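Ticket #4471: structure export looks truncated?
Reporter: QA, pipeline team
Priority: medium

Steps to reproduce: submit the single chain below to the structure queue and open the exported record.
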Amino acid sequence: MTHHEPHASGPGVRLNWLRAAVLGANDGVVSVASIVVGVAGASNTTGFILTAGVAGLVAGALSMAVGEYVSVSTQRDTERALLEKERGELRDEPEAELAELTAIYRAKGLTEQTAHQVAAELTAHDAFAAHVEAELRLDPDELTNPWHAAVASAAAFLSGAIIPLVAIMLPPAGWRVPITFAAVFVTLIITGTLSAHAGGANKTRATLRVVLGGILAVVITFGIGKLFGVAGI
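Actual output as written to the record:
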């Protein structure tokens, strides 16, 4: 009998969602900041900057939502297929499934007798629930909703993207780019720290990586904007 690959659940899933939200916000900050600063490097026209920023914000949020919906839908389909497979195995091979469940608890450190007793009692109570929890680490009633994931992803992107858009639109023309750089710098420090916390990584190293990568992207697009701005004159 083939043992199913376990799926993450519980606190690990919550941490993954937190990490995804932080990274989505980080993508929003860097993407929209790069766009508006790049356009600002080429032109100080408020309309151009606002149009480009809003277009980048909407396009990025929709792209994130669609990508997350497709990804989670695929995951959900896979989980449903595994659940159906488990139902079939329990119906057609109950003895083999009981032996498999016993082996799982035996691997956790129980004696053969205790593992068999636990597996038998759980199977008698609710065989399907016992097997999907132990083998698949899934709750059939709490499968990830692709719509929820799509909305959460778009919201995370928007929460980050709105910061550089506001930062570049509110100040006078001469202060737009410096203030946007400052806003991006502070925001990336926050998202880098949160990302490191969610992943249990070294906060200084992770934050430095996020800040340097984001600032580099914004500097490059600003340089390209300047180049094309000068070339267009």
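Status: closed, not a bug. The export was complete when the record was re-opened. Leaving a note from the reviewer for reference: The chain has one domain: 11-232.
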